[in-house]
Structure formats: C-alpha cells, structure tokens
TrEMBL record:
InterPro entries: FliL. This is Flagellar protein FliL. The keyword Calcium does not apply. The chain crosses the membrane at residues 12-32. It is found in: Cell membrane. Keywords: Cell membrane, Cell projection, Chemotaxis, Cilium, Flagellar rotation, Flagellum, Membrane, Transmembrane, Transmembrane helix. GO terms for cellular component: bacterial-type flagellum basal body; plasma membrane. Pfam families: FliL. It comes from the Bacteria. It comes from Pelosinus propionicus DSM 13327. GO terms for biological process: bacterial-type flagellum-dependent swarming motility; chemotaxis. It is a single-pass membrane protein.
C-alpha cells in the first residue's frame, strides 16, 4: 500500500506541473498574438493607401522665402515634401507636360503664404512638429478636404 500512496501524490504533482506549463504557454501565446500585436500595428498608416509625394519649390533648393517683413533681411531656405492622398485626375493632368500642375501651384502658394506669415520665433527647432501640423492643416483648408497625409521637412536653413 505504501507504493500506491506514493504513486498517487507523484502523479498528481506531475499532472499539476504539466497543467501549469500548458496554462503558462497558452497565456504567453495569447499575450503575444493579441495584445502585443495590436499595439505594434500602426493603424493610421495601415488603413490608408500609399500617398503621392510632391516636392515644393525648386528641385534642388526647395523654397527660398523672405520672412519677418521686407526690411528684416531674414531668409528661410526650406525643402518641403508633401504626401497627398492619390488623385487619379490630378495624376493624369500632371503627366501631360513640364509645367507644374494646378495642384502643385496651389500647394506651393499655400506653403509660402503660411511660412511668410510666421514670426522668427515660430521657426525654433523645438517647434518643428507644430510647423508641420500648421502646414498640413492650412493645405487641407486650401483643398477643402483631408488630402494631406503628412508634411516632411528635408532641409531647413534660417539666415
């Protein structure tokens, strides 16, 4: 009888260890697939189609703008690339010639207007994200809908 009594607790112990390992594996699998995977997926970029990139200004230099008024003598050289929601009509019109499309002209006009209306303090490197958001919102206002996905600053020189 002593062997039967020892065997029962030993089998119970082995069964509890196996059950604990299976439970821990199941919980780990659930956490890895459901919780962590949901946090790592960028929902904003995964739910939109790829955008069209439009470089504003000169192909080499970007935009060169006199800021702070005519008498200030301060200049801003900025390279801006705007990522737009694809538009089949605008793409067909842009492919017809070397002239900038009306969309590109409207983009550049809005960007220059916004940049010239800012004060010197607004070009602080710590305020770069605010500048990008301001440009994005003003361009969206000019087009009348949410056409701009993002604004990228490729170079920035303030003199």
């Amino acid at each position: 009888m002593a062997d039967g009594q020892k065997k029962f607790p030993m089998m119970l112990m082995v069964g509890m260890i196996v059950f604990g390992l299976l439970l821990a594996g199941g919980i780990s699998y659930f956490i890895a697939t459901k919780i962590v995977a949901d946090k790592t997926v960028d929902k904003k970029s995964s739910q939109r189609e790829p955008g069209v990139f439009v470089k504003l200004g000169d192909a080499k230099d970007g935009l060169l703008i006199n800021i702070g008024g005519a008498s200030s003598g301060r200049y801003l050289k900025i390279g801006l690339i705007v990522e737009l929601k694809p538009d089949k009509k605008a793409a067909a019109a842009a492919a017809t010639g070397k002239m900038p499309s009306p969309e590109e002209i409207k983009l550049a006009d809005t960007a220059v207007f916004v940049l010239r209306s800012l004060k010197i303090e607004d070009f602080d490197p710590l305020k770069q994200e605010q500048l990008k958001e301001l440009l994005k919102s003003e361009i969206n206002k000019a087009f009348g809908d949410d056409r701009v996905y993002d604004v990228y600053i490729t170079n920035f020189v303030l003199q």
